[in-house]
Amino acid sequence: MNLKKIEKFINKQTVSFICSVDEEGYPNVKAMLKPRIRNGIKEFYFSTNTSSMRVRQYQENPNASIYFYHKGLVKYVGVMLKGKMEVLTDQEIKNKLWRKGDTMFYKNGVTDSDYCVLKFTAISGRYYCDLKTESFEIK
């Protein structure tokens, strides 16, 4: 599997989907903006509300997946990554992800206690394109 090809594909996407597991063991999917920071296809950083249901779910069960896709007129491409999600509240990472318009969501700014970072670390994935699916490991 060409992981650089997958990385280029993810670079072009503006929306991602994150998946958590609820207390009954069911998957919960949420659309998010693309990750604010990414380290190849191994680490992804998203900003969110500390008080959100998703944060509670990740704190109870860090198993997670993220998904990116593009649907063209004829071609559909999708990438699913499986791994662990961490909830980060340290100020250094919050500062790193902060954007000017974020005060619309976090009234107290970058130090708002309701602002946190989700860090996803991928361990494996599946790539779909042209009616073919391929699994891959991420080291």
What distance separates the N and C termini?
13 Å
- Overall average residue pLDDT: 96
Radius of gyration: 15 Å
| Strands, total number | 8
How much helix is in the residues?
Answer: 10-25%
The best one-word shape is: globular
Q: What series of H and E elements makes up the topology? A: HEEEEHEEHEE
Q: Let me know the largest β-sheet.
A: 8 strands, antiparallel
**Beta-strand content estimate:** over 45%
Low-pLDDT sequence parts: none
Decide which structural class fits the backbone. Answer: alpha+beta
Number of helices: 3
Give a verbal description of the structure.
The chain is an alpha+beta fold and 139 residues long. The mean pLDDT is 96. It is globular, with a radius of gyration of 15 Å. 18% of the residues lie in helices and 48% in strands. It has helices at residues 3-12, 53-60, 91-97, and strands at 15-21, 27-33, 37-39, 43-49, 63-71, 76-88, 115-129, 132-137.
Fill in the keyword field for this structure.
eight-stranded antiparallel sheet, 3 helices, about 50% strand, globular
Question: What is the compact description of this entry?
Answer:
By secondary structure, this protein is an alpha+beta fold. It has helices at residues 3-12, 53-60, 91-97, and strands at residues 15-21, 27-33, 37-39, 43-49, 63-71, 76-88, 115-129, 132-137.
Mind sketching the topology for me?
Layout: H1 3-12, E1 15-21, E2 27-33, E3 37-39, E4 43-49, H2 53-60, E5 63-71, E6 76-88, H3 91-97, E7 115-129, E8 132-137
Antiparallel strand pairs: 1-2, 1-5, 3-4, 4-7, 5-6, 6-7, 7-8
